[in-house]
Write a structure and sequence with these properties.
Layout: H1 4-14, H2 23-34, H3 39-46, H4 52-59, H5 74-90, E1 102-108, H6 114-130, E2 135-141, H7 155-168, E3 174-180, E4 188-189, E5 201-202, H8 206-211, E6 217-223, H9 231-234, E7 239-243, H10 262-271, H11 278-295, E8 304-307, H12 311-320
Parallel strand pairs: 1-2, 1-3, 3-6, 6-7
Antiparallel strand pairs: 4-5, 7-8
Length: 344
Amino acid sequence: MRNRPLLVLILGCLIGGGIVLGTEYLLYAIHRHAGPVTSSTMDAHMFVEPPAGLVAAATGPASSTAWPDSAPTPEQVIYAQPAMVQAAVGRLGPHVAGKPNLYLIAFAGDGSEDVFRNEAEYAARLFTHRFGPTAHALVLENNPATLQTAPLADWSNLEIALDGLARVMKPDDILMLYFTSHGSEDHQLLVDMDPLPLDAIGATDLPGILAEHPFKWKVIVVNACYSGGFIPPLRGSDTLVMTAARSDRSSFGCGTESDITYFGHAWLVDALNHTDNFVDAFHQASHEIADWEKHDKLTPSKPQISIGSGIAAQLARWRKGITPGPTVPFRPAPPAPATTSAAP
């Protein structure tokens, strides 16, 4: 999965039509995906004969997807990412000594719908405002309105953010990942900010990403269709995994007309505003979602949970160190400014 969008990027850089991000970013991308650029890696990765259909797509008309008129170019956005992620990590509140701290990364994967941005930003506000100074949050999001203000939600930025957290977190601290996006039947999360060539993140990818970092205690929430497929590769004694749907079921509430998903509304807004226990909140949310789906005559999504034998006790230790604050109302983010031109 990791290398397929790289081929699209290479074609965009080498062929006159389609996405043109420049030779410098081409070299950066090859380095990011395949290690240092040498004559051998240039031979192996640049001079690949692509399928005919892909060439036709790359040489056809440019994408009609609108890119904000006031935004930097796609290349400028890409080059800004490492500094933006490092700045976001630097803005986290100070670590509270003597107590487990919780560090949340909220990841809004699909840039074509505001619902995912709304949910990720709300999760960050909820945790930092309601659960006090031992809760820290940063947002990675794909949205036309935040290209200059928030780091992109992509594989590389997730790794950079995890690297940053690894430098500030203590052994008793808890890492929390909240993913919200579209999901596929083969358990891939859509990661999209057109026209940037971003890699999907699959259920089998996350364990490898996490294994590169020294986090023992983990809470992972995957809010997407078919997200139950993320549980088998992620479950463990030190991990709590919650998903919005069974591995063979859709979840609901996304779309351009929606402000927040069913799962986000039920678990974040309704449940966690009344309890600090993630598992209790999950069961409350599951019942509420089932009622909504029954009312709307939808096939039940069947949210799933896996509770490791050790993580429940560690979360209880974290809860002992907090005094939950008042409820945090949900408000959708303002929409992106109007655009009048196609992507540069």
